Amino acid sequence: MSSASATPDAGWRVAGLIDTRSSPQARHAYIPTRAVRLEPGYWRSYMDLNHATILPSLLQKLADAGRIDNFRIAAGQLDGEMRGRDARDSDVHKWLEGACHVLQTHPDSPLATSVQEIADLIAAAQDADGYVNTAFVGDRKALRHTNLRHGHELYVAGHFFMAAVAHHRATGSTQLLDVAARQADYLCKTFRPKGVNSTSGHPGVEMALVELYRATGNARYLDLVRFLIDRRGSAFPEADLRQRQSLVDAQPLREMKELTGTHAVRSLYLLSGATDLYLENGDESLRRAVETLWADTVATKLYVTGGLGARYEHESFGEAYELPNLRAYAETCAAIAHVFWNQRLFAMDPRSRYMDGLEWSLYNGAMPGVSLDGMTYFYSNPLEVHEHGAEELPSRSGVDREPFFQTTCCPTNMVRLLASLPGYCYGYDAQGIYVHLYAAGALDWHLPDGAPVTLVQRTDYPWSGKVEIEVRLEQPARFSLFLRIPSWSRSPRVSVGGESLAQVQSGAYYAVTREWQAGDVLSLDLDVAPRFLEADPRLRENAGCYALVSGPLVYCLEGVDNPGASNLDVQWDANSAAALRLEREDGLLNGVNVVRGPGLIAASRREPGPLYAPAGAGWSTPLQQTTLTAIPYYARANRGRTWMKVWTPHARG
Q1: Counts of helices then strands in the chain (DSSP H, E)
Q2: From the candidates 100, 409, 410, 545, which is the catalytic residue?
């Protein structure tokens, strides 16, 4: 009997995206995707797009690239040559996970047929010893675990484990959970001090193994996670220092104080897994490490967009305050990984700062990764683009969206993120229900004593900061509703039944504890008026510049909205910051709020040269007043190639 069948999870229907209900160190649990019904609004539009367009089109692209046939070949159902790089199976697994999340909210979805076909193929492709990976079968079977630096075997296994858990929680079936348990059992036998005494060059399996443990109860999977984390710092001694930094192997995880030089996605996946492991085993050295690295990262290495990873080279973090705009890498996957990490950190320590970080990276770091029509993608996300693009960059994926990538990790990461969005909205503990993300819809849940409760949320967030939550109960009940008051909100207000409540503090959860009656309405008012941000003076690239934000959204200027201006000469008029106007444009970019305000542009193009002049000579260029129009950063690059910038100089006109 497989590990999964031996300990079936009777609570699969109420397990959240990460199931911390029984985690000894967890102080918070998440409400499952199926309990949340989103109504028309920002997030519902993306979920519908994902269901109707992105998932089906991406599946076809994966099939055209041979990703599905690879499993048929491995299962002996088809003759032919395998196609794709060693990590290719992870694309299918992430697509499958996303489709399974859809099945929680749309159990009758046409995607169910494809889900079952792929599940059957993966099961058929499993080797007798439990191994599943089409890149290392047949003539390449002898190469298993011989190139852990670049082979991505454990990374691929991790994505399969997450897909298998999602399949179980969507359908109740243990078909893929059994397959995953057999592969995990194989890994437990293989990776050990007297076996393969190493770890993966690309983390990801760690958080997946913890989630597989939560679904099966097999504690050996936690032992394997601890082994893999403990090997960090000595797994790849043959590599040079720069390579070991990229592999997150330059020093033991528990000794790391910063992420300089480390591959952004690898680092954040590893830290998510380390946080998960702490939630289960209480290793305080892991807790100290993840808290230290989170604090340093958000203080010195996080883009204003919630993006992470400053360098194209090795897709890595830079030094403190090394955050270039034009050459920002800010991989879509890194922003998604930041969402994962903050989700786990909040379960460990339910503080608003983690959910604030999750929301900010979600809206501004991850969402730029897919076009508004759902057909093209960004891999990297720079904060500035020149007028004629950036042909000289090592990758142009941040300038022009692409329909597919040979390494298509970002598109497949997007589909699983979008499909799982309802699972981030709410959580709970013994005191009551937490509202993490604001979106129109309804939550159907229960109180600690089992009594049913429905929360109906009415809002146009993020375009408006006004939120109403109606409480529906069969009988009056006393419990707490915890509202996240974002740190960006100035003068937030909360009321119940029209009666204002006192001491509402930004950057914290506000607990409304009372005897709730059926029909009670709680109102939240957050200020989304546009405002400017400045960077720490040590971030020299943005000295004398403003970034524009409204609510949880970062804004940018694009050439198409500002004719006659150039990204090299456009400026905000700092004298007129109070004149910024938030205006609704329903016919623009699927409906957005734009920000218009006074700005300055060069009255004429300045001729080149001299490039340098004596100090004090002055570089005055005649400026003229204009009105600048800014759009949400996530919506950029949807109207053809044009210049773009987030950080814009400000001048006194």
Answers
A1: 16, 22
A2: 409
**Using CA atoms, how far apart are residues 220 and 352, in angstroms rounded to an integer?**
33
Contact (CB, 8 A) for 472 and 456: yes
What is the pLDDT, as a whole number, of residue 610? 83
Cα gap 406→408, rounded to integer Å:
6
Burial of 220 (0-12, 13-18, 19+ CB in 10 A): middle
Question: For 102, what's the count of Cα atoms within 13 Å in the CB-facing half-sphere?
Answer: 29
Given this model, what pLDDT does residue 393 score? 53
Q: Are 384 and 369 in contact (CB under 8 A)?
A: no
How wide is the angle at C-alpha 554 spanned by C-alphas 549 and 555, nearest 5°? 85
* Rounded distance between C-alpha atoms, residue 317 and residue 303, angstroms: 11
Residue 395 CA to residue 295 CA, distance in Å, equals: 30
Residues of the chain with confidence (pLDDT) below 70:
1-10, 389-397, 619, 652-653
The identity of residue 305, as a single letter, is T
Considering 315, 331, 384, 558, which one is annotated as catalytic? 315
Give me the pLDDT at residue 611, please.
85
Integer Rg of the chain from CA: 25
Domain with CATH 1.50.10 in the chain: 3-378+396-424
- 280-307 as b/e: b if 16+ CB within 10 A: bbebeebbebbeebbebbbebbbbbbbb
β-pairing, 477-485 with 466-473? Answer: unpaired
- If DSSP states are collapsed to H, E and C, what string results for 152-218? CHHHHHHHHHHHHHHHHHHHCCCHHHHHHHHHHHHHHHHCCCCCCCCCCCCCCHHHHHHHHHHHHCC
Domain limits, CATH 2.60.40, in the chain? 426-525
Contact yes or no for 154/199 (Cβ under 8 A): yes
Do 346 and 358 touch, CB atoms closer than 8 A?
yes
- 426-525 topology per CATH: Immunoglobulin-like (2.60.40)
Tokens, residue 192:
């050990």
Question: Residue 427: its pLDDT value, please?
Answer: 98
The answer as to CATH 1.50.10 being correct for domain 3-378+396-424 is: yes
% helix / strand / coil in the chain, to the nearest 5?
A: 40, 20, 40
Query: Is 0.85 topped by the overall pTM?
Result: yes
> 648: which strand partners?
546
Task: Extract the tokens encoding 302.
Answer: 């996080």
409 catalytic per annotation: yes
Q: What is the pLDDT of residues 524-565, one digit of tens each?
A: 999 999 999 999 999 999 999 999 999 999 999 999 999 989
Q: Is 7 exposed, middle or buried (0-12, 13-18, 19+ CB in 10 A)?
A: middle
Q: Which residues contact 37 (CB under 8 A, 6 or more apart)?
A: 105, 422, 441, 442, 443, 444
